[in-house]
Amino acid sequence: MSKHGKVLVAMSGGIDSTVVALMLHEQGYEVIGITMKTWDYATSGGSKKETGCCNLDSFNDARAAAVHHGFPHFILDIRDEFGDAVIDNFVDEYLAGRTPNPCVMCNTHIKWRALLKRANSMDCEFIATGHYANVRQENDRFLISKGIDETKDQSYVLWGLQQDLLSRTLLPIGGYRKTAIRQMAHDFGYPELAKKSESYEICFVPDNDYRGFLKRNVEGLEDKVKGGHFIDKSGKILGEHKGYPFYTIGQRKGLDITFGKPVFVTGIDPIKNTVVLGDEEDLMKNDMMVAKVNYIKYPGVEDGMEANVKIRYKDNGSNGVLHHDQNGLRVSFYENVKGIAPGQSAVFYEGDDVIGGGIIQR
Fold this sequence. Notes:
Blueprint: E1 6-10, H1 15-27, E2 30-37, H2 56-69, E3 73-77, H3 79-95, H4 102-121, E4 126-128, E5 133-138, E6 141-146, H5 163-166, E7 169-170, H6 178-187, H7 191-194, H8 210-217, H9 221-224, E8 229-231, E9 237-240, E10 264-269, E11 274-278, E12 284-295, E13 305-310, E14 318-325, E15 328-338, E16 345-350, E17 353-360
Parallel strand pairs: 1-2, 1-4, 2-3, 4-7, 8-11
Antiparallel strand pairs: 5-6, 8-9, 10-11, 12-15, 12-17, 13-14, 13-16, 14-15, 16-17
Helix pairs in contact: 1-2, 1-6, 3-4
């Protein structure tokens, strides 16, 4: 019988999840390691090898650590589940002229649910991951807050987790800085892991070319998104684009059109097949609509509540007010915010705590 209970640890083979598994094992938990195969990149025709959670070497690294420390390890194939929820959404969002965040979709709909399902089948009380965030119980709510290492904080991508998932979740490294985790890896006898490079690409687009991914994987894409017009905000035609899904709000490079000054993508209309170009100031807005909201810290929020709002992963956040709307939440910022992109996540914070989050609609 273990000292603290039985925990299913998601092990990608990288430094963070490996240290989590070894840390919990050392603390007296009964650890079971599990590595999830989400995507077979070789089938997509990309130009780079599989990376991150889909790398065979990473599978072997995770298994080797488990075997060496005497706890079981399994590989779980969730490619079908992942493809249906994450990749289909990724494609659909770009075809709708929006910019998706597949990591949020994966955490919300696939990884945690898949982990909890397997945890239940193995009689595990907890699931654990190597995310840099913290989870705690406060009264009858389970809360997510920022990791102490601001350069690694991943609370932004966890806004979609619901209470039943959070009540079973351990995030052991949220209270550590990355330098400390590297030292732990070294102390556990894995100096090569401490030096292992990290992947920041989307796992199924390891060459970071989402346009190439769409071309290879969407049947009849060229017929669906033939080139159309670049226009300005008044509707004047400025030139020809190569297909609206190949552009994102705020994009400046790769437009293949020159005006003698920087121009940016400020709007995308899939119905009219137009891409709007404008000046940097045209990217500035002081409000947005957010739908599909999941509340974490509270069951809901009062109309007029103030919050710090992040509109992208590396955003520092901007202060604003949350207003109820029949379609979700309307956020009114105190100052203009640059580059609000439909399809991306908006996450609301109260101090370091995540109030909740949702998908930007406009």
